[in-house]
Amino acid sequence: MYLCTSTVESSTNPNMSCNAVQNLKEEWVEGYENFQVKIKELVEENSQRRIFVYFWGNARDDGKSWCPDCRVFDELLAKIVPAVKSPGILLRVDVGIKEDWRTPMNPFRTDELKITSIPTIVEWGTGKRLFDSDAANQSKVELFFNNTSLVNL
């Protein structure tokens, strides 16, 4: 996996061109502490852009998440992101290996965000969330990324 600053790249679609014009820029962080630093930085630097935070299970050696629902969402995300209408940031947050994620004291679970399942997608600062069961629903995911007036789905 890699980061392209002009497009969203996905492990499920490595042939996507970095020359394509898209509205979402993707960034990646690993772990709770790095997430805390990065989200503060993004909020300060992007006051006029929407920030989406995607909590997912880290990639295995084959480049795919250990989380089956995250793998499904990744495929859907690769289809939807090119059509996102408003500019923004997609911050992909690796919550760790499966064993660490499942512990009740995992900081993502105990933080004020209370991430209890993955994938979870949050539009930062709005209260909008998409939980694991909705991440496979293309209509809900499209609405989530393109509708700026919804508070929660």
What are the salient characteristics of this protein?
153 residues; alpha/beta; five-stranded mixed sheet; 5 strands; 29% helix; disordered N terminus
Quick recap of the structure?
With 153 residues, this protein is an alpha/beta fold.
List the helices and strands and how they pair.
Blueprint: E1 24-30, H1 32-45, E2 50-56, H2 68-80, E3 88-94, H3 98-101, H4 107-110, E4 120-123, E5 128-130, H5 138-146
Task: Write down the oligomeric state.
Answer: single chain
Please report the distance between the alpha carbons of the first and last residues.
30 Å
Helix content: 25-40%
What overall geometry do the principal axes of the alpha carbons give?
globular
SSE pattern, N- to C-terminal: EHEHEHHEEH
Tell me the fraction of residues in β-strands, as a range. 15-25%
Mean pLDDT: 81
Compute the gyration radius: what is it? 14 Å
Counted by DSSP, the helix tally is 5
Detail the poorly predicted runs: 1-21
* Strand tally: 5
Q: How are the strands of the largest sheet arranged?
A: 1-3-2-4-5
Class by SSE composition: alpha/beta
Q: Biggest β-sheet: count, sense, barrel?
A: 5 strands, mixed
Tell me what the structure shows.
By secondary structure, this protein is of the alpha/beta class. It contains 5 helices and 5 strands. The chain has helices spanning 32-45, 68-80, 98-101, 107-110, 138-146, and strands at residues 24-30, 50-56, 88-94, 120-123, 128-130. The chain has a 5-stranded mixed beta sheet with strand order 1-3-2-4-5, with helices on both faces. A hairpin with a 4-residue loop joins strand 4 (120-123) and strand 5.
